[in-house]
Amino acid sequence: MIEGGGGAERKSFHQSFSASLPKAVQPSPVGDWQVLLKRLNVPVFEIERIAQRAEICGVSFQTELLASGAVSERELFRALADDLGLAYLDRPDPSDLVMREWQGFAALANRGGVRMALTLDRDGRSIVLIAPDRLNIPALRSFVRRYPRAARRLRVVPPSHLRETVRKRFRPELMRAATDGLFSSHPKQSSRFVVNAWQGAALGALLVTLAFFSWTRPAAALLSVHGVLSVAFLACVVLRIAIGLSREPEKKPNFTDMDQAEAPVYSVLIALYKEADVIPDLLSALGRLVWPRSKLEIKLVCESDDRETLEAIRSHELRPYIEVIEVPAGGPRTKPKALSYALPMTSGEFVALYDAEDRPQSFQLVEAWQAFRDGDEKLACVQAPLTISNSGESWISSMFALEYAALFRVVLPWLARRRLMLPLGGTSNHFRRSALNAVGGWDPYNVTEDADLGLRLCRFGYRTSMIANATYEDAPTQARVWVPQRTRWFKGWAQTWLVHMRDPGAAVRELGLPSFVIMQVLFAGMVLSALAYSIFWATVLGLGVYVALDGEFRPGHFWLLMLDGANVVLGHAAFLYIGWLSLNRTERAGFWKKLLWTPAYWCLMSLAAWRCLWQLYWNPHHWEKTPHKPYRGPYIGTGASSSKSLQPEAAAMRVGRSRKEPGRHVGPGWQAVPPFARSVRLRATRQTRKPGPEPMMSWSSAPIASRSLPS
After folding, report:
1. How far is CA 632 from its chain centroid?
2. Where exactly are the transmembrane stretches of this chain (predicted)?
3. Distance CA 580, CA 236 (A)
4. Which SS3 state, helix, strand or coil, does residue 116 take?
5. Residue 612 near residue 604, CB atoms below 8 Å
6. Are 256 and 643 in contact (CB under 8 A)?
7. How confident is the model over 419-453, as pLDDT tens digits?
8. What is residue 424's DSSP assignment?
9. Lowest mean pLDDT among 22-26, 207-211, 229-233, 333-337
10. How far apart are the first and last CA of the chain?
11. Least confident window among 353-367, 638-652, 673-687
12. Which residues contact 202 (CB under 8 A, 6 or more apart)?
């Protein structure tokens, strides 16, 4: 709402109220909460556990209390309002909010949420909404006694509800920032336009030249096309062989001791669209992540018109650190647009990105943070490897698993060790927030925002590294699902290449020559080689039919046949070679089947590449959604060290509880413990010692713990 004639009066009241509050708010210790929590039937032992966890994590008691789930946010703030004699307002009207755009964006990016806001009642009088994250109960009680008239104009609001009000109030501004942010700050690196003027002119001239020589000198045109495609094809072959010959052993997780109080706030983003079936699996997977819940924020980003997914999420009673963000309908309807919409509403120093079907190993956040801590400010991103867990379901998923193994176990680590341009995977990316903001975030118009962002980070002087804790996911098992997904990938790689080749000279200077060459091979080379594969086979088969019917085998036919045949054989050999190197002994069983399926799999790739050209012209920003099914297999590993000191934790930290089945929690049955938690022991266990190994505290669990106990 825009301030009108009463703006001066409202501003004066707001300023006088703010001035009357303590300048440095010291959060209430646990003693100030005892009476209120007993009224809410929170057991004394639970209060003590929460207080000790708050001390260990270096957060306020209130923050740890809400993260623990011992009491709901709504119950707590309603009881607080009753205790102080203040009015309680559950959900303010966004249209009545008096706040400027910059204030709204700053409030949404604040870890503590929106602490205070000004709104209007039905008579136009100003009302102050308070949702303090560092609540000092005695100070607030003293204020109410000293200023009773001002207290009547206060409303206590649950922090998440006030945050939702601000989000709805500035929805158009957030949407504009998401769709136009990168184009406004870095227009030359946005995919909003597929080609620029000189690229369009060059492409037109190339097509006209090709058509002219195809009519006047068809043999020369055919050989020229095959020569260009062969260069792209063989470049991919050479890169695969070079990587395979110089590969190094896989990196193993290596945790070090550290204090939980040092842990920063970590933001986790998950973009969801038509994912109602996998929501329980997703919440369960998130529940296994090891990180202090009082320093974790999870954003489930959904399209506002995706009612099924939203209803599936709302059927669970989520913890306060999980926020559902509804993205307004509007183009481009892509995953990066949704992520760009949600990013201003995160406060974490580090940002992790997952997909709906992901099952990350428990200690992935810990390993990523340690990589950032040990690296310099130029380390902008760490990529976790992706592992396919349903490779045995079909021949397509088997070949997909082979591709992923080669990419995440061999190719990307090879690039990372040499600090070359690294195209990110679409998920399990962990970003340094400052670097993500510096490069403009995700491109909402690019349908492979991951590859584009990895390249843009490199152009800005940042680098990416790999970690060992993997994320498990399922591959498509049918061609009708696989082909649209691969079409989107090829289209996005083509978009990325066109964007970063708008000024080739600048790209060489900013990337360096080695990364520039890698960009040509991984983006242009991969798309061209997929297109070329069907051309090579068509040429071989066409020449065979021609010779069989005509009976004449000319020298030109021989060289063309040899060229195309060599391309196909070498392409298959390099693909299988690097795939073989990426598999362990168990995974290599039945490898001969992959050899037999490779030609068919590459034919599907070629089909997807030709579809990509069609879409790049007619519908460049269309996002072909990949459907996901609920996971039915066992949860695989924690990603922790194999140290004997790792013991299961009895109490798991859940992320939510099913509303339909109140007794069913969404989360794991236990948490393994990393080596750095050895100094944190269960006090209750020590007091009543039993035979056997002593359990230790997991970052995501909530036992009574003390840092003073010996390890």
Report:
1. 23
2. 193-215, 221-243, 521-546, 558-583, 595-618
3. 17
4. strand
5. no
6. no
7. 999 999 989 999 999 999 999 999 999 999 999 99
8. P
9. 22-26
10. 57
11. 673-687
12. none
SS3 269: strand
Q: What is the mean pLDDT of residues 12-39?
A: 63
Contact 591, 583 (CB under 8 A): yes
Task: List the structure tokens of 657.
Answer: 């509880």
**Structure-token match 């990168």, residue found:** 182
pLDDT category, 693, cuts 50, 70, 90?
very low
Percent of the chain with pLDDT strictly greater than 70: 83
- For helices 73-84 and 159-169, the axis angle rounded to 10 degrees is 110
| Secondary structure class of 681 (helix, strand, coil) | strand
User: How is residue 309 written in tokens?
Assistant: 């997914």
Between CA 566 and CA 555 the distance in angstroms is: 17
Is the CB of residue 280 less than 8 Å from the CB of residue 666? yes
Please give the structure tokens belonging to residue 307: 């009612």
Q: How far apart are CA 539 and CA 225, in angstroms?
A: 12
Residue 698 scores a pLDDT above 50: no
Please provide the average confidence, as pLDDT, over all residues in the chain: 84
| Three-class secondary structure of residue 179 per DSSP | helix
The band of 14, judged by pLDDT with boundaries at 50, 70 and 90, is low
3-state secondary structure of 432: strand
**Helices 279-287/307-314 angle, 10° precision:** 50
CB 399 within 8 A of CB 320: no
Q: DSSP label at 649? A: B
User: What span, in angstroms and rounded, lies between the C-alpha atoms of 692 and 650?
Assistant: 14
pLDDT tier at 60, thresholds 50, 70, 90: confident
pLDDT tens-digit map of 147-201: 888 888 899 999 889 999 999 999 999 999 999 999 999 999 999 999 999 999 9
pLDDT at 335: 96
Extended beta strands in 175-241, E state: none
Rg (CA), the chain: 29
Residue length of the chain: 711
Is the pTM of the predicted complex or chain greater than 0.85? yes
List the chain domain ranges: 7-169, 640-711
Eight-state DSSP code of residue 98 = B
Q: Are strands 463-466 and 379-383 parallel, antiparallel or unpaired?
A: parallel
Give percent of the chain above pLDDT 90: 59
Tell me the Ramachandran region of residue 122: left when phi exceeds 0, alpha when psi lies from -120 to 50, beta otherwise.
Answer: alpha
Sign for the CA dihedral angle at 18, 19, 22, 25 comes to: positive
> For residue 633, what pLDDT is reported?
73
The answer to whether the CB of 437 falls within 8 A of the CB of 395 is no
Name the residue with tokens 């091979």.
Answer: 521
Q: Is the peptide bond before 43 cis (omega within 30 degrees of 0)?
A: no
CB atoms within 10 A of CB 594: 20
Q: Look-up: residue for tokens 């080609």?
A: 195
Across residues 352-370, what is the average pLDDT? Answer: 96
What is the residue-wise DSSP string for 524-588? IIHHHHHHHHHHHHHHHHHHHHHHHHH----HHHHHHHHHHHHHHHHHHHHHHHHHHHHS-TTTT
Average pLDDT over residues 231-254: 88
- The one-letter code for the residue type at 233 is F
Q: Is 522 exposed, middle or buried (0-12, 13-18, 19+ CB in 10 A)?
A: buried
The whole-number pLDDT of residue 342 equals: 96
Instruction: Say which residue, 236 or 541, is predicted with more confidence.
Output: 236
pLDDT at 644 over 90: no
218, 638, 646, 679, 683 from 693: Cα distances, Å: 78, 19, 9, 14, 14
Cβ neighbour number for residue 209 with a 10 Å cutoff: 12
